[in-house]
Design brief:
Distance between the termini: 70 Å
Number of helices: 16
CATH superfamily of the largest domain: Dihydropteroate synthase-like
Number of domains: 3
Shape: globular
Largest sheet: 8 strands, parallel, barrel
CATH architecture of the largest domain: Alpha-Beta Barrel
Number of strands: 17
CATH class of the largest domain: Alpha Beta
CATH topology of the largest domain: TIM Barrel
Strand order of the largest sheet: 3-6-7-8-9-10-11-12
Length: 447
């Protein structure tokens, strides 16, 4: 039986030091009891308390780190729920892009450079490819070690070593051991050799098998032989079967606390059809991959996957908002247009991005709607003409422009008359219903 929050609290130092990132020891104990944090996350925990509670209080899915400690690593796992509405997902799905063994050293280095640069900004957050997966099949041990050394010197992301030949994989991992690469992957026919590689170099190991029963046995064997961190690997070529198996494995770990399957899961969806790869990856983000291996690096292929990851892994309990203030986009002047919008991050960054794309410098008055979008804020009584007028007055944008023209969201045409009657903004212009229409709107309505 899992320990209660009070039982856990009794074994904590009770100093309320905050080193665990919670204000009090009781708050931390409640998170541990809910299996949202590990007891060992308390840096002041005594050895006796660790021995008594660490196993029973650990989250149902273990945390796995790929890459060195500190900056530059990727953490996956330690999830506590299957669905976001049950709480939140602790860590976003990581993307790893393959570097094929068939590439020349120069092309492999160029491919890694493209992976390093596969970074984007969406709603103010940096997203992108977080890992590189080095294929070794077809290489000799010597060539694999040279390839690994070359790429390690140039990589800004953690690495995985993929292959079927233990000797070749071992040669590459030996070069990268200090960087803690993912060893990928142990199969029933080569499990002993791959387990030894991961245990000797203290690296995480991906394990794969034909059935969940075999997979849980392999995971248990690997842990018993000294592999501290494991990832359950599934086949992306059979999506229906894989989703069923991952669903069963996830439920066994998170609902039944079945420890042999209590590890993050990964799927290799790389293939020759970019569109199909994107569809598969997006499906496995929802069901329930912590790590995905892809081929495509084109933004048109990556952004749908990354957007899915960002949307699903956003904490639903925390409003996704920006600061309510006057923002200047471009080199604004006294004749620049003035808009207002809400402080919902997606709304604001969509508007700001389209204003920037229009090449028309503009002022954006951000109204505090507690992180709600335009229609939700209006329906929830968080946005009204009176509040918009008050915010715009407080931000003193009228002191910065000569005109008294105000562009309002296209979804709020009813605001026009009241703002014109109750404020100094005597010409209220109804903007486009979607942010994507802003460039054309400016071109037609603003000179």
């Amino acid at each position: 039986m899992a320990p209660t929050a009070m039982a856990i609290y009794k074994n904590l130092p009770k100093t309320n030091c905050g080193d665990c990132k919670f204000p009090t020891c009781m708050a931390f104990a409640m998170r541990v009891a809910a299996k949202q944090k590990a007891l060992t996350d308390c840096p002041r925990l005594s050895d006796e308390a660790k021995a008594a509670f660490s196993e029973s209080s650990a989250p149902p899915m273990a945390l796995v780190r790929i890459g060195p400690p500190g900056e530059g690593g990727v953490d996956i796992g330690q999830e506590t729920v299957l669905f976001r509405h049950e709480g939140k997902f602790q860590r976003p799905t990581a993307l790893a892009a393959k570097i094929a063994a068939s590439l020349s050293d120069a092309d492999a280095a160029a491919r890694l450079d493209a992976i390093n640069k596969s970074r984007f900004t969406r709603i103010g957050q940096a997203i992108g490819v977080g890992m590189a997966a080095i294929e070794t099949d077809g290489l000799s041990a010597d060539s694999a070690s040279k390839r690994a050394r070359l790429l390690a010197e140039k990589s800004r992301v953690p690495l995985a070593v993929m292959g079927k030949e233990p000797a070749v994989v071992a040669a590459a991992v030996g070069v990268l051991a200090g960087k803690k690469p993912l060893v990928c992957r142990a199969l029933p026919e080569n499990a002993d050799a791959f387990i030894k590689i991961a245990a000797d170099h203290k690296c995480p190991l991906a394990v794969s098998a034909g059935t969940l029963e075999q997979l849980s046995d392999m995971a248990k064997t690997a842990k018993d032989k000294g592999v501290a961190e494991l990832i359950l690997a599934f086949d992306g070529r059979m999506p229906a079967k894989t989703i069923r198996e991952m669903t069963v494995a996830g439920r066994a770990a998170l609902k039944k606390n079945f420890r042999p399957l209590g590890w993050p899961m990964m799927v290799d969806v790389s293939g020759d059809a970019p569109a199909w790869e994107t569809v598969l990856a997006s499906a496995f983000v929802a069901k329930y991959a912590s790590l995905l291996i892809v081929n495509g690096l084109d933004p048109a292929e990556l952004l749908p996957i990354l957007t899915m990851i960002q949307n699903i892994c956003t904490d639903p309990q925390v409003p996704n908002e920006v600061e309510a203030k006057l923002c200047e986009i471009g080199k604004v002047g006294e004749n620049s247009p003035v808009l207002f919008t809400t402080n919902f991050a997606l709304t604001y960054f969509s508007v700001a991005g389209e204003v920037e794309r229009s090449k028309t410098p503009a002022y954006i008055c951000v109204v505090d709607t507690e992180g709600l979008g335009v229609l939700n804020a209006f329906a929830g009584d968080k946005l009204s003409p009176e509040k918009a007028v008050k915010t715009i007055a407080e931000q003193k944008v009228a002191d910065k422009v000569r005109h008294r023209k105000l562009i309002i969201p296209g979804l709020l045409p009813s605001f026009k008359a009241e703002i014109e009657e109750t404020s100094a903004w005597k010409e209220v212009i109804i903007g486009p219903p979607n942010a994507s229409g802003i460039p054309a709107f400016f071109q037609k309505n603003w000179r």
